[in-house]
Amino acid sequence: MRPRLANAAFLTLLALTTASMLVVVQAIFLQAPVERTMGIVQKIFYFHVPSAYGMYLGAFACFLGSAAFLVRPTHGRDALAKAGAEVAVMFGLIVMITGPLWAAKAWGRYWTWDPRLTTSLLSVLIYVAYSVLRAFAGDGEAERKFAAALGVLGAANLPIIHYSVQKWSGQHPRVISSGGGGLAPGMVQPLILGFVTFTLLACLLLWSRVRVEKARARLNELEQAALDAGLEEDAA
Amino acid sequence: MNPTDSSNPEATERSTEFQAVDGGAQTTSGELLLVEAYAATWLVVFAFLLVSWRRQARIDARMGELEKRLAQHQG
Predict the structure, then answer these.
(1) For a surface tag, which of A12, A74, A205, A235 has the fewest beta carbons within 10 Å of its beta carbon?
(2) Which of B28, B59, B73 has the CB atom closest to A216's CB atom?
């Protein structure tokens, strides 16, 4: 994509995400009804669940970039994998903060070792490990391949998170997945808007991180050119 | 309301115990938890954007400097 076209598309996505954020906040706090038994704290659901979905999107991007990198290594694929892992960590953090805050009211405690909670925490830790590896283990070919393998293997936990509430008993609610009782009519629209908004946000953050990683690859090339030109002391 | 009004039973009775409204099980405000969760969500997103923006700014500055030096070297 041409740089000018890419910039225009990026700014359009940014504007769409911002507008969607404003709409979803209005829908959650002014339109969605208060839940009968839990009260207003249930409204955490409208950004807790879309955040979990955002984590899946980031993790999927990491898997896609990592698998593609293992087939044929390129800067773009490596950048997608790295950006995906960082986005997965960011959304995972939101899930891990908002979930316990809801649980404090609904369960009377912040945390239990419920299968979904445990597998979600495990997934977040996998992507934290990936990001730490990329930040501190150097940027050589072997490190990047090792990270790509972790990116592929780390995705194996995602279906386990999804099906954990169906396969094992636990406390985590099962409302919108199969077997759940569903939502009251006024709660469906804010949730859909939440999914749309967090999808846009995930795409925006992924794109911005890929741009940063591509710029870093270009910087590495320039530093190499500076070294070749005998400016190594300046480039170091 | 006049605090010395003897027709108001609340004003003349001395409290001898405190009882929780919801039976004592709930100690946390749902409103507060909702605000905390919402604030945390925004903080995490903004922290991510800030880190990303700082990385981009650092890379741009370094690239500009290197391009200038390379141009001077070639020119």
Answers:
(1) A12
(2) B59
Q: Which of B60, B33, B71 is nearest to A98 (CA)?
A: B33
E strand or H helix that includes residue B48: helix B30-74
For B57, the closest chain A residue by CA position comes to A212
Residue type, A130: Y
Per-residue pLDDT of chain A (236 residues; tens, 9 = 90+): 677 888 899 999 999 999 999 999 999 999 999 988 888 899 999 999 999 999 999 999 999 999 999 999 998 999 999 999 999 999 999 999 999 999 988 888 899 898 889 999 999 999 999 999 998 887 788 899 999 999 999 899 888 887 877 777 777 887 776 666 778 888 999 999 999 999 999 999 999 999 999 898 889 888 888 888 887 555 44
In chain B, which residue's Cα lies nearest the Cα of A227? Answer: B70
Q: How far is CA A160 from CA A35, A61, A118, A171, in A?
A: 29, 18, 11, 16
CB-closest option in A40, A43, A222 to B67:
A222
Domain total of chain B: 1
B22 to chain A, any CB pair closer than 8 A? The answer is no
Domain interval for residue B55: 30-75
User: Quick check: B40 and A101 CB within 8 A?
Assistant: yes
